[in-house]
Amino acid sequence: MEGNGRPSIGQIILLASSSAVTAIFYSVYRHKSRTAQTLKGAKKISLDDDLSDVLMDLPGKCVPYAVIEGVVRSVKESLNSQFVENCRGVIHRLSLKEHKMVWNRTTHLWNDQEKVIHQRTNSVPFDLTRDDSDDSGPFIRVIKPLEAAELDLETVYEKFHPAVQSFTNVLGHFITGERPKGIQETEEMLKIGATLTGVGELVLDNKILKLQPPKAGMSYYLSSLDFDSLVQRQESQVRLWKILTVICGVATCVTLFFILRRQYRQHKEKQRLKQLQREFEEANSRAQDGEDEEVRNACTICLSNQKACVFLECGHVCSCYQCYQALPQPKKCPICRNTISRMVPLYNS
């Protein structure tokens, strides 16, 4: 059967969607790769007594991208945990998450789902020092810590409050397709005395050393990991996105290959049918040359041309090629009305 020569709508949608996903994954991979390379190029700074003098001699009194490792110390006041005694910190976050099971109508399975229904974060000014008990040593004031791309907080309290189940509720859950499991309450803190690795712009402002968010294109980090571990974590994310990009790219190439192969086969089939048509026309012209009497073995449709087609799978020989082409789609045998799966030319001698 002849094709229309164009990819189907489904094929176009599949190719376009796979190409779009590949482009998105590649964009994320490039961004992660640039971020990791920039992080690896950050300058390590030690908390020395002469750090202020070093910055005084630098252009703009700053290091555009610096790495500082120190101990957290509050400037004036601190934040207390609501659930743990004698637990003080400089950043405090309370979160409430709803956990529930949701019925998937496609897979016919219950899937876990969580949703943050409330979150509150408080912070107070704090410094990074060599020792939180040494007030006379050098310190670096951390500016806008909540803007950090990665802010590692320690979970100091966690409790799960299960949902109360009754027969009426269970029946309603099956009707709505949602089954609540409960509420998870979490308290996180950046404790005083915790070791922190800060990566950002280091500036000297009014004789105060400050670590603040860097310029555009560079990420701000406040991590509990050391610098080498932080770099390794970023590189592992880069590898993950690279693998996803390669997988989607291969899927896109495979999809494009099958579409092009199908188009090539349709093109070859069209060429074959055109060749058959030329052969039929040449055979008919030879048969009609010098023939004045009535056409023998005439087509049952037009009654003027010779029969030239064998229809499969029924096997009837009842039509010329011109009438075969004029049959409506899907083509059916005019004798038995069975669908014609394939046509074989019949050569009359």
TrEMBL record:
<keyword id="KW-0472">Membrane</keyword>
<dbReference type="GO" id="GO:0016567">
    <property type="term" value="P:protein ubiquitination"/>
</dbReference>
<keyword id="KW-0496">Mitochondrion</keyword>
<dbReference type="Pfam" id="PF12483">
    <property type="entry name" value="GIDE"/>
</dbReference>
<comment type="pathway">
    <text>Protein modification; protein ubiquitination.</text>
</comment>
<keyword id="KW-0808">Transferase</keyword>
<dbReference type="InterPro" id="IPR013083">
    <property type="entry name" value="Znf_RING/FYVE/PHD"/>
</dbReference>
<feature type="domain" description="RING-type">
    <location>
        <begin position="299"/>
        <end position="337"/>
    </location>
</feature>
<dbReference type="GO" id="GO:0061630">
    <property type="term" value="F:ubiquitin protein ligase activity"/>
</dbReference>
<dbReference type="InterPro" id="IPR051652">
    <property type="entry name" value="MDM2_MDM4_MUL1"/>
</dbReference>
<dbReference type="GO" id="GO:0031647">
    <property type="term" value="P:regulation of protein stability"/>
</dbReference>
<dbReference type="GO" id="GO:0005741">
    <property type="term" value="C:mitochondrial outer membrane"/>
</dbReference>
<feature type="coiled-coil region">
    <location>
        <begin position="266"/>
        <end position="293"/>
    </location>
</feature>
<dbReference type="Pfam" id="PF13920">
    <property type="entry name" value="zf-C3HC4_3"/>
</dbReference>
<keyword id="KW-1133">Transmembrane helix</keyword>
<keyword id="KW-0862">Zinc</keyword>
<dbReference type="GO" id="GO:0008270">
    <property type="term" value="F:zinc ion binding"/>
</dbReference>
<keyword id="KW-0863">Zinc-finger</keyword>
<dbReference type="GO" id="GO:0009893">
    <property type="term" value="P:positive regulation of metabolic process"/>
</dbReference>
<keyword id="KW-1000">Mitochondrion outer membrane</keyword>
<keyword id="KW-0479">Metal-binding</keyword>
<keyword id="KW-0812">Transmembrane</keyword>
<dbReference type="GO" id="GO:0051094">
    <property type="term" value="P:positive regulation of developmental process"/>
</dbReference>
<dbReference type="InterPro" id="IPR001841">
    <property type="entry name" value="Znf_RING"/>
</dbReference>
<keyword id="KW-0175">Coiled coil</keyword>
<dbReference type="InterPro" id="IPR022170">
    <property type="entry name" value="MUL1-like"/>
</dbReference>
<dbReference type="GO" id="GO:0022603">
    <property type="term" value="P:regulation of anatomical structure morphogenesis"/>
</dbReference>
<feature type="transmembrane region" description="Helical">
    <location>
        <begin position="240"/>
        <end position="260"/>
    </location>
</feature>
<keyword id="KW-0833">Ubl conjugation pathway</keyword>
<protein>
    <recommendedName>
        <fullName>RING-type E3 ubiquitin transferase</fullName>
        <ecNumber>2.3.2.27</ecNumber>
    </recommendedName>
</protein>
<feature type="transmembrane region" description="Helical">
    <location>
        <begin position="12"/>
        <end position="29"/>
    </location>
</feature>
